[in-house]
Design goal:
This protein is an all-alpha fold and 194 residues long. Helices cover 71% and strands 0% of the residues.
């Protein structure tokens, strides 16, 4: 952007649109022309503000973490029962898996599509899962300390198992297969907490 020229768009709003485009279409299938059209900005504005498509994707991933993931993490910090807060997070991801748009979870999609081919993005995705896993483990420790979780349950191991179930749940949700029921996976995941 030439010096002195002001942006004519809200960067956060444009990032939100970009996130939804990548979320629905994936990284590889989404071309620059479709991105600029869907984001409502010019090609030059995309490059001036966000850099390359890859750099935009990284910014979108950060945006996802500060919006969607932050919403899930906030559920764990609510007052009341820590175990019920963990169940609320599981419902959050269940809702992503059963969303009528069949888009799954942005992070899970990126792990499958981009993570194996891009070390920097794989690290960001791993850090994102670590944030969720750490928050789940802290909440599960609190639940065990309050007597809501049986003493023989290891909160750290359970948090890892829950991450595994969450990722499986949101990926299977994209398939809409009858033999792999999101409801059954969700129910089995909840049973881990008993």
């Amino acid at each position: 952007m030439p010096p002195g020229r002001r942006k004519t768009f809200d960067e956060i709003e444009v990032l939100e649109r970009g996130m939804n485009l990548f979320w629905l279409r994936g990284y590889e299938a989404l071309g620059i022309a479709e991105l600029v059209r869907g984001m409502g900005i010019s090609r030059q504005s995309l490059y001036d503000t966000f850099g390359s498509k890859r750099e935009l994707f990284i910014r979108v991933l950060d945006h996802y973490r500060s919006t969607q993931l932050a919403g899930a993490l906030a559920l764990l910090d609510r007052p009341g029962s820590p175990l019920e807060n963990v169940r609320a997070v599981l419902r959050f991801f269940h809702d992503l898996a059963t969303d009528s748009r069949c888009r799954g979870c942005f992070v899970a999609n990126a792990i499958v599509e981009v993570g194996p081919h891009d070390e920097e993005i794989a690290t960001l995705l791993g850090d994102t899962l670590d944030l969720l896993q750490g928050a789940l483990a802290r909440t599960l420790h609190e639940a065990r300390n309050r007597g809501e979780l049986p003493p023989h349950k290891c909160p750290d191991a359970l948090a890892k198992a829950l991450i595994n179930s969450i990722m499986g749940l949101v990926i299977i949700g994209k398939l809409r297969q009858r033999h792999l029921s999101v409801e059954d996976i969700h129910a089995g995941t909840l049973n881990m907490l008993d």
